[in-house]
Amino acid sequence: MKRLGALTLAAVLAVGLTACRGEDNSDAQNAGAGGVKTDTGITKEPCPKSEHKDRGCIYLGIISDLTVGPFHALAVPITESQKAFWKRVNAQGGIGGYDVDAETYVRDNKYNPQTHNEVYQEIKGKILALAQSLGSPTTAAILPDMKQNNVLAAPAAWTSAYAFEDNILESGANYCFESMNAVDYAKDAFKPKTVMAVHLAGDYGDDAAAGAKIAAEKNGMTFIDVKTDSGTDKQAGAVTAIVTQKPDLVIITTGPADTAAVVGGAAQRGFTGKFIGTSPSWNPGLLQSPAAPALKALYLQTGPWKTFSSDTPGHKAMREALGSSVTPNDGYTSGWVWSYPLLAALKKAQADGDLTRAGLVKAAKSLTKVDYEGMLPDGAGNFAAGVDGQFRQSLVYSPATGNGTTDVPLVKDYFVGPTAKDYKLDKPCYEKL
Predict the structure, then answer these.
(1) pLDDT band at residue 405 under the 50/70/90 scheme
(2) Which run of H or of E encompasses 222?
(3) Which pTM does this prediction carry?
(4) pLDDT of 157-187, one tens digit each?
(5) 3-state helix, strand, coil in the chain (%, to 5)
(6) Which of 178, 166, 148 is nearest to 341 (CA)?
(7) How far apart (Å, rounded) are the C-alpha atoms in residues 156 and 136?
């Protein structure tokens, strides 16, 4: 989930000046259920598939990588999990006399910023907020418009840039902190002297690489930066850099298929150092690929939260909502976790008597904690603290004994290393790479 730059920014700003129906907030004082103020994306009529005909409807949009992009294997279960999450909310009483619809306005961004903006413009006049905006580059393409129109979004990405955005409700450690923790973990586990970051360009790969660089330099290690392009047929340069420069540790931040190509290719050419992958770099299906032996021998995986079958109330609720027929996939886990802050913001806005877009953004900024039902530790979700409230803990997994399911064994529970603990986040990390 990388940034491709500001290639769509001018188009976004131009389109953003043309208001969609309902976005002038002229009806912001209209009273909804219980006298709560409402505007865009809320109707007195029930949601299309609702069984509760006495409730109105809150419409949430989802824009995700559903067909051809590099993250669709994760994005499809993310989306299905979020649909199930909001159905559970409705079954538990909804939000102040409203059900939540997260199905009517689901759109495919094909992991393309221009497409993301096009479908956003199509639905933005009909939704209160975005239950999902997948990808850093794609979300960057609509962020100016989101700010202009008070559209709140739960992202499907972890860039450190979101720490500085009031319209984004992020969850879990960002890529920068995750990579800092990975290097600090490796310092104790492997004692590396050289660290190489192999990564996609933009604020997915660059953010993680910057964290690796900061931690490597703090720990007195040599740092090597290697950028690569997405595509399994484009990893020869990265593999050559690894086998010729022989780093002790490689922090890899790519798509899952690229990870297999890099790790498998380097191992085939005799590399015996260690790899640690940032969370979106991994898919348990890689253990069914030709690269599986290399991954089991050389690769560790970091992550922002525990895997699908973990024993927390939130994980249990997720599995129950999804049903026994789904194949375990941590896309489901991520989609479920990412939904909690938006639920908390909706509840707070409703309690404040203001379910307008502006009221929802205000409510989100006032949250001091979010109940993740145990899926993240206490202290997560302090949006009122701004940058200082950023969650910094992550986990480490090893596929060494994995069997191709989502349950890659945990080797290091929630922790924050000394680098991330002491680091002052004063700007997005990728700006310091």
Answers:
(1) low
(2) strand 222-228
(3) 0.90
(4) 999 999 999 999 999 999 999 999 999 999 9
(5) 45, 20, 35
(6) 166
(7) 8
